[in-house]
Design brief:
With about 775 residues, the protein is mainly beta. The protein contains six helices and 50 strands. Helices cover about 5% and strands about 60% of the residues.
């Protein structure tokens, strides 16, 4: 503890506030509806080298010495505002910006500065605005933020039509996904074909795949931070859309004008209902749909305090002709309090609750019911200190209580099937963090920090002792509720360095150490709601990753084009894989099926983006390798991880044909997935037994697909707008593999053949969107 205390004391004491420096602080908001504005450029006309940008709450801070200045506020689609101020001490200045009606017809509002990719100290960070997401064609016309981020370099899809994604060689469970600071464990609907995020309710999203700030932790590969938008604080609005497979409706408005607001957004699919109307007999008594609901309340308690309450509830339903039924979904709540102490200090306090659960009922002779859930109670506290005009310190702590129920089994007929419930698992995860961002010189900027994390394994159920070599069960250990069985402590240093070569280019380097204490147990690449989460125990150790990255960033043509080239190397420890023929679905003592080892991932990412004009879009390319090395798999040699893809290409284009029509297209290409196929077979008592020489020794054919989209603006006035959205998924109808299986040759029963299962040919869709 003395060591940790010394480190954090050092971080807190990085700089001393200059006695001749004062702080001007405030909020920037939309003068029409009082909503906070993100990414407003706040500069000083007399001091061109000093400036900042407003945060998600609309807040900004500047440190200035005594004197008179002209503060300039700029944001695309809003009139520039200049405010003359006299600095004789700390002061608060709130500014409302007026919308530029002319520019609103031609320019999209952006929440990031035009040269942020060059100027910001972090590398491997991508931010996408909802306006861009809404233009990109996707499966069945449903706008989807998770499928959009798969088009970025370093981010790869988990499969055909799937919302699961891999980041820089990591597995899908190594991505932390947050909705207003609450954890989302299963971010998908309908087995991964749709995401849990309704884009009508989303404000923006940021993915950290390289240098990760110290306030984020708990996963190895990335953090996806999704922010839900506030409701309009001045006027009421209704918007929505009706498509071939789903409909959406959003209602928002003020509770107390210019002080509080609400937004409620819901959607539902109805593919099964349409099939029944069309007379499809196979689905007559079946269910296949999902629904979800987003809600957010925002309330300004004072000019220094803001309170927001976010809630999400989503559910999937699947029923197969009375044979079996399954439902699964997320329930999420988040309460956030933003408080400004004074011009130099602010805090954000967040309480959140997450419950992911699934239920399976099998209506056969056994009458088997299976229920499982994972529940989190989370407290997160962040403090921001403006030390001076060159140092910004962020520090705080996080505390999460995990309750994991891997399976509640019940049989209506114990005489046929007698079942034993799985053991519950309880753990307590804590972290302290601090990050300081400092301007060393005009050209050199650093961001350095430390996260000290811990996981305590708590009692209350049976635990087990295993043989270290064979993993065989040796003994059962009964524990008392609240008992501390094992505590892991880990230090996670973070460092980012950015050197400005000139006004339009920079070089960045980063080192990031991350730790993961919760693990997803699944033997398939396909997203399944019944995949099991397990916490670290005295036998399953935390996963650890060390990543280094180096990149070159350059803008062209007055920031119209941006280019980046980044290389990375990631060293992974305590990686989990399965024994050959592992049974992970029905076993309570899952440890007997697991193997542990190390991994490595490395690659090159190239990115070229055009941001402005009638035509814009990007090209992304990733050359990468992801491998594992685990004893008792492939004789202890390196082998390709399930998510290994050598090449990955994404081309995205959007074109404003005229004031009425907008066209879009995406083309993607990736190397095939690693696969395990038998190299021989033999028969025992009339049963065919396959022989496997090694894991992931084969590779599926390459994947590629073209999607097309078009948006037709039907009508737009100040009070009403409507549009038709057309999309064509897989335009040239390529049969991309979803999975492979084996079968006996019809003409020669002694011959075994592999065959491909594909899901989609060309799929057209149309939807109508409206707002008033």
């Amino acid at each position: 503890m003395k060591f940790l205390t010394t480190i954090f004391f050092f971080l807190f004491s990085i700089s001393i506030i200059s006695q001749n420096s004062y702080t001007i602080q405030g909020k920037v908001y939309n003068d029409e509806n009082k909503e906070p504005l993100i990414g407003v450029s706040v500069g000083v006309k007399e001091l061109p080298h000093i400036g900042t940008f407003s945060k998600e709450t609309g807040e900004y801070e500047l440190s200035l010495s005594q004197g008179s200045y002209t503060i300039v506020f700029k944001l695309l689609s809003f009139y520039t505002h200049e405010e003359k101020v006299k600095i004789e001490g700390n002061r608060i200045l709130d500014i409302g910006l007026s919308a530029d009606d002319v520019s609103l017809q031609e320019v999209e509002v952006t929440a990031v500065r035009s040269d942020q990719n060059v100027k910001q100290v972090e590398s491997g960070v991508e931010k996408l605005e909802i306006q861009v997401i809404n233009k990109i064609p996707v499966l069945l016309g449903e706008k989807d933020i998770l499928k959009t981020i798969q088009l970025l370099p370093g981010v790869q899809t988990a499969g055909e039509g799937n919302t699961g994604f891999y980041v820089r060689g990591g597995s899908s469970d190594q991505n932390l996904i947050l909705l207003d600071q609450a954890t989302v464990y299963n971010p998908s609907h309908l087995f991964g074909f749709f995401s849990t995020f309704n884009s009508d309710a989303v404000d923006d999203m940021t993915i950290y795949k390289g240098s990760m700030p110290a306030q984020y932790g708990g996963r190895l590969s990335s953090t996806l931070d999704v922010q839900m938008r506030d409701g309009d604080m001045k006027d009421y609005h209704v918007s929505g859309g009706i498509g071939l497979i789903s409909s959406r409706l959003t209602v928002e408005g003020p509770l107390q004008k210019e002080r509080s607001s609400f937004i409620v957004s819901g959607r539902r699919t109805y593919a099964d209902a349409l099939a029944r109307l069309a007379g499809v007999s196979q689905i007559k008594d079946s269910k296949l749909y999902f629904y979800d609901l987003n809600a957010k309340l925002s309330y300004f308690l004072s000019n220094k305090d803001k309170l927001t309450l976010t809630a999400y509830y989503g559910k999937d339903k699947l029923g197969l002709n009375g044979v079996a039924e399954m439902d699964w979904g997320n329930a999420i709540a988040s309460l956030k309090w933003n408080h400004i102490f004074d011009a130099n200090k602010a805090s954000t306090t967040t309480l959140s609750y997450t419950d992911y659960a699934y239920n399976v009922s099998v209506d056969m002779t056994t009458g088997l019911n299976i229920a499982s859930h994972i529940r989190d109670f989370n407290l997160n506290q962040e403090f921001n200190f403006v030390l001076n005009d060159k140092n910004l310190l962020k520090t705080g702590f996080a505390s999460i209580y995990h309750n994991v129920v891997p399976g509640e089994l019940e049989s209506k007929n114990p005489a046929v099937l007698d079942v034993t419930p799985f053991n519950h698992r309880h753990s307590w995860e804590n972290a302290l963090f601090a990050t300081n961002t400092t301007k060393v010189t005009d050209d050199l900027e650093l961001s350095y920090g430390l996260r000290a994390s811990s996981l305590s394994v708590l009692g209350g159920s049976d635990y087990y002792k295993f043989d270290e070599e064979t993993h065989e069960l040796l003994d059962t250990i009964s524990t008392k509720k609240g008992e501390f069985l094992k505590t892991y402590l880990n230090l996670e240093p973070r460092l980012s360095v950015a050197y400005q070569l000139n006004d339009v280019s920079s070089i960045k380097a980063a080192y990031t150490r991350t730790v993961q204490n919760l693990h997803l147990i699944s033997t398939s690449n396909l997203a399944s709601p019944t995949d099991r989460w397990v916490a670290s125990t005295d036998f399953i150790k935390p996963e650890i990753a060390n990543q280094v990255a180096l990149g070159y960033f350059r803008n062209f043509s007055d920031n119209m084009f941006e280019f980046s080239a980044e290389v990375y190397y990631k060293d992974l420890k305590n990686q989990i894989d399965f024994k050959d023929g592992a049974d992970v679905g029905t076993k309570d003592v899952i440890e007997t099926e697991l193997l542990f080892g190390k991994g490595r991932a490395y690659g090159l990412e190239l990115f070229l983006k055009k941001k402005y004009g009638r035509f814009n879009g990007w090209i992304g390319y990733t050359l990468s390798k992801s491998e594992r090395k685990i004893d008792k798999i492939n004789e202890g040699k390196w082998y390709a991880a399930n998510q290994d893809r050598t090449h990955d290409v994404s081309i995205v284009g959007m074109y404003d044909l005229n004031k009425k029509w907008t066209l879009s297209a995406t083309w993607v290409f990736s190397s095939g997935n690693p696969m395990t196929f038998p190299s021989g077979k033999y028969e025992v008592d009339g049963h065919t037994i396959y022989y496997y020489e090694g894991r992931n020794q084969y590779r599926a054919p390459a994947y590629h697909r073209l999607d097309l989209g078009a948006t037709c603006l039907l009508k737009k006035t100040k009070k009403y707008s409507s549009e038709l959205v057309f999309s064509l998924y897989n335009a040239y109808a390529r049969k991309n593999p979803y999975m492979y299986s084996l079968k006996q040759n019809v003409d020669n029963p002694n011959k075994t053949e592999s065959y491909m299962i594909y899901l989609f040919s060309a799929i057209p869709s149309i939807s109508w969107n409206f707002k008033f």
